[in-house]
Fold Reverse transcriptase domain-containing protein.
Amino acid sequence: MDKMITGLSGVTAYLDDVIIVGRDEKEHNENLFELFQRIAEKTPQFKSVALQEIGLFRNEWSACSPDLNLPRIYVDLKVAIEAERDAITETEIKTLVANMPNRVIEVIQKYDGYTNY
């Protein structure tokens, strides 16, 4: 690995890790891109895979984004979780709260084993 990354700016190897750094996100991404280009040049089996197809160069969201502009899958997951949460009725919540002492007692009696809840 050391030979492969020789001469690349902001790239170093430590044991079995490759560390890529930059002064800002743009420089970091440029260094990362250069590393992938070098790997593609020196590794025939890596060349055969279209890098865009496996998403190596697609940065769908910024890790530094203050508003956490998450990829679509996370937005969909959040919407689904909120929909399930909103579907819980007040009666169901009151029932869960009322049964909590019984649940705690059963957990204690079963020594953290299987319970009916």
